[in-house]
Fold this protein.
Amino acid sequence: MSGRSTFNGRRGLISRRDYLRAGAAGATALTGASWLPKLAADSAHNPQRRRSCILLWMSGGPSQMDTFDLKPGHENGGPFKEIDTAVPGIRISEHLPKLARAMQDIAIIRSMKTREGDHTRATYQLRTGHLPQGSIAFPTLGSLVSKELGEPESELPNFVSVAPFRILSPAAYSAGFLGPEYGPVIVGSSDNFGGMEDNSLAVRNLERADGIVPDQLSARLDLLQPLEENFLAEHPDLPVASHRSAYQGALRMMQGPARDVFDLSNEPAALRDSYGRSKFGQGCLLARRLVERGVPFVEVSLNGVPGANFFGWDTHQQNFEATKGLSGVLDPAWATLMSDLKSRGLLESTLIVWMGEFGRTPKINGQQGRDHFPAAWTTVLAGGGVRGGQVIGRTSADGMTVEDRPVTVPDLLATICRGLGIDPMGQNASNVGRPIRIVEPEAKAIQEALA
């Protein structure tokens, strides 16, 4: 048997013999039942643990007026009532009662002020920090974070995206000039409708093809490795190197036990129920499992609920009915995510970001809907690196303008970077031959939001 090597996660290279032994032993030798929980526990309590980020992306642009910045008594306010939270003086929507009880770990930013009201361009701006600019392919936030905090030889991907709705702005979900190596592993379809199947968040194509035994797979890998090395030597370009890196990452997942992290069936049924059996709820549970094992960036998209608008929070019609349904999915999933992380000692090292591409008009239209509104809206930060229990900024009584502490997109992204221990002024080489900072130089982090 040949002594040639193949890749195996953090340890770099293992012998072909070890790979075959692992393949033959299968679930018996490498089961996640004993190995993964121990790794997760060690990771959670490691004082050198790096921070992680979970982005809760609200496709379509959520209404600030019906979630975190209500205007009771004003004609723009709508029918929803405010409720008290765990922090005196902070009140939010009656349809977010579980989050209200977790307000001590949450910072609400009510003074976002942007200009872009188009879904495609605004989504790109919020996720990359830039508006589209010709030939420059800016990387999405998850790719930037995974490059700064990820481990190249990790058995798990450094960036996982759950059910992204990419149709309107595919470039906003791309690794851009960083290359495919920093792109996301995508799990789950882009809708949130119907029930939740246990295997719907699994990573596809991690099993060997039918009829291929470990000996055959190993022999094929032995053939592939020198071919790839020779091709890379003759074509030392970023796409070639990125493809090889992505291929090796997939191989590490195939032959390692870490792939079991995507199987939610071994989580207690009561906990799964607490998150909610929606794709978003189970995606939040998956996010906890991933950051527990050291994945630096996970995003979970809430794209819609049964019987409501096709495009999630894009509530041009029947805003209140749709927002109530969306809040009913959001509230248990997000609140349980925070309590689950806290119980495992992970909340202090995990930054949670809630945002969409813009807000919605304070004025209610003739279809009982709210339209696109970037002039004064809300984002939320929670968990690690955040000074919770506060509201930052203020909008006018009618919700039309920002009256205190305006926050731009670069400001928000700089704050996220600081909360994760990343220098927002760091630079990356771009596809146009010049270095580009992680966040625009004029950005000013929201210091009062940082712990």
Remarks:
- Residues 26 and 247 are 21 Å apart (CA to CA).
